[in-house]
Amino acid sequence: MEHLLEQTLNGLQLGFVYALIAVGYTMVYGIIKLINFAHGDVFMVGAFLAYFGFTSWGLPWPVAVLVSMAGCAVLGVGIERLAYRPLRARGAPRIAALITAIGVSLFIEYFTSLNFVFGSDYRNVPRVLPDRRWELGGITVTNVQLLVLVTVLVLVASLQFVVYRTRVGKAMRAVAQDTDAARLMGIDVDRIIACTFALGSALAAVAGALFAVAYPQIHPFMGIMPGLKAFTAAVLGGIGSIPGALLGALVMGQVEVLTAAYVTTDFRDAIAFALLILVLLLRPTGLLGKTAPEKV
């Protein structure tokens, strides 16, 4: 039982990291119905910026994370402005935006792997926190696990506040509901979309920094699988729903860790994606998704 509880705690840690990435997917999809496949690579850039801020620039780890958030927010806005906005302005079909997203993802991965950028080598992240462990009822809890859980809960709660209690959040919800009507009501739709990309990218940067602390090895292609799994989590929970993204990510984290612990590590990815297929067969809108008419 103690082993099961410890693996459940490990699943929570992994699931909460996925949650911050999944929230970015679900926010962008909710606004412009686009799957931003470059989001996993923003997560990777966030991990590297925090790493270099801490090791090369001599910044305290919290300051390095803030620098990473700012850098990824700028990157997210740049991706939206240069890659996606021209397609929207020309009324391009969604498949064109999807192909562009895959192209942007590949460009970021291979550009950052160049020697004069991040390089293709694996980098070991130094310890940023002293090793602290507590025994609670036979379960070992580490300060890294507490850091991940508390940070993600605070950020998701803050995001909910922004979305439902601020003018920018109200504008986001208006654009998500009807872009043309929002524009007629005086909302600067392009600015709101840029804000959405910036906010989602900043959260992905925090996810990258937390991932680097919890699993201290980073490389330019590290965002591929976490990005795919976070997208799967967003769909599993009901894409377009922030609580759904959180729930889906927690389910994905638990399934992956428990499969690796009690079945085999070879099948942990297969079973996680098979779960998505099963849920979508039984509930196509996801766990917390709502049926809505398709917008033309």
Offer a few descriptive terms.
L-phenylalanine transmembrane transporter activity; globular; L-isoleucine transmembrane transporter activity; two-stranded antiparallel ribbon; amino-acid transport; 296 residues; mainly alpha; transport; two-stranded antiparallel sheet; L-leucine transmembrane transporter activity; 11 helices
Structure summarized in a few sentences:
With 296 residues, this protein is mainly alpha-helical. The protein has helices at 2-32, 39-55, 61-89, 94-112, 143-165, 167-177, 179-184, 189-214, 224-237, 242-262, 268-282, and strands spanning 123-124, 133-136, 139-142, 217-218.
Secondary-structure blueprint of this entry?
Blueprint: H1 2-32, H2 39-55, H3 61-89, H4 94-112, E1 123-124, E2 133-136, E3 139-142, H5 143-165, H6 167-177, H7 179-184, H8 189-214, E4 217-218, H9 224-237, H10 242-262, H11 268-282
Antiparallel strand pairs: 1-4, 2-3
Helix pairs in contact: 1-5, 1-8, 1-9, 1-10, 2-3, 2-4, 2-8, 2-9, 3-4, 3-8, 5-6, 5-8, 6-8, 9-10, 9-11, 10-11
Oligomeric description of these chains: single chain
Shape assignment = globular
Structural class: mainly alpha
Q: What's the number of extended β-strand segments?
A: 4
- Estimated radius of gyration: 19 Å
Q: What characterizes the major β-sheet?
A: 2 strands, antiparallel
Return the string of H and E elements. HHHHEEEHHHHEHHH
Rounded to the nearest angstrom, the distance between the terminal CA atoms is 52 Å
Which spans of ≥5 residues are poorly predicted at pLDDT below 50? none
Mean pLDDT: 90
Strand order of the largest sheet: 1-4
Residues in helix, %: over 70%
Strand content: under 5%
The number of helical segments is 11
Family: Belongs to the binding-protein-dependent transport system permease family. LivHM subfamily.
Pfam family, one: BPD_transp_2
GO molecular function: L-isoleucine transmembrane transporter activity; L-leucine transmembrane transporter activity; L-phenylalanine transmembrane transporter activity; L-valine transmembrane transporter activity
Transmembrane segments: 12-32, 39-57, 63-83, 95-118, 138-163, 192-215, 270-289
